[in-house]
Structure formats: structure tokens, C-alpha cells
Amino acid sequence: METEEIAFNLILHSGNARSNVMDSLKCARNYNFDEAKELLKEADNELEKAHKIQTEILQKEASGENAEPSLLFIHAQDHLMTAMLARDLSDEIINLREGQKNH
């Protein structure tokens, strides 16, 4: 797989995950926690796909295959890290929202 294709796949899966996370937060805002949690599962699936791609690249580099630095790949990594952070924060936000409903 070429660097550009790898980068675009990272962006694709990361973007899908981030969209799912944001949609889950909208559901939680409306106290629809079951749907919110389902969307987070979908986000996790997308993040897993992106993480596999990232791991393959890191393993290749660790074994001596040097990949040329690419602004597009750096951009893709930024998308992945942002989506991962959004996913991490979403659990806390949804838990807080659930707590508000129960009080």
C-alpha cells in the first residue's frame, strides 16, 4: 500500500470514528444513552481499523523499512489522535449526562 493510500485510509477511519463520537454525544444530550453507546461501539470499530493500519506502519519502520515523511501522513496521524481523544472524553461526558438524568 502506498503512503498516500495509507494516509487516506487513516483519515477515513478516523473521520468515521469522530463522526460517530459526535453523534453519540448528541444522542446523550437528548438522554438517548442506548443509541449513544451503540454509536461509541461503531466508533471503536473504526478506531480499531485505523489503529491496525498505524501499527503495521510502525512495525515496518521498526524492522528497518523506512517510510518517507509525508505531510499527508502526519495529517492522517493528527486525525487519528484527535478521534482517539474525542472517544476517550466521550465516556466521561456521557457518564456525566447520565448522572444528571438520575438526580
Brief overview, please?
The chain is an all-alpha fold.
Topology of this protein?
Layout lengths: L2 H27 L3 H30 L8 H32 L1
Helix pairs in contact: 1-2, 1-3, 2-3
Characterization of this structure:
The chain has helices spanning 3-29, 33-62, 71-102. By secondary structure, it is mostly helical. The protein has one domain: Phosphotransferase system, lactose/cellobiose-type IIA subunit (Methane Monooxygenase Hydroxylase, Chain G, domain 1), CATH 1.20.58. It is elongated, with a radius of gyration of 16 Å. The mean pLDDT is 92.
Low-pLDDT segments, ≥5 res: none
The CA-CA distance between the termini, in Å, is 52 Å
Largest sheet at a glance?
Answer: none
* Overall morphology: elongated
CATH superfamily: Phosphotransferase system, lactose/cellobiose-type IIA subunit
Strand content: under 5%
User: Which CATH C-level class is it?
Assistant: Mainly Alpha
| Structural class category | mainly alpha
Annotation field: number of helices? 3
| CATH-defined topology | Methane Monooxygenase Hydroxylase, Chain G, domain 1
Kindly provide the radius of gyration, computed on alpha-carbon positions and rounded to a whole number of angstroms. 16 Å
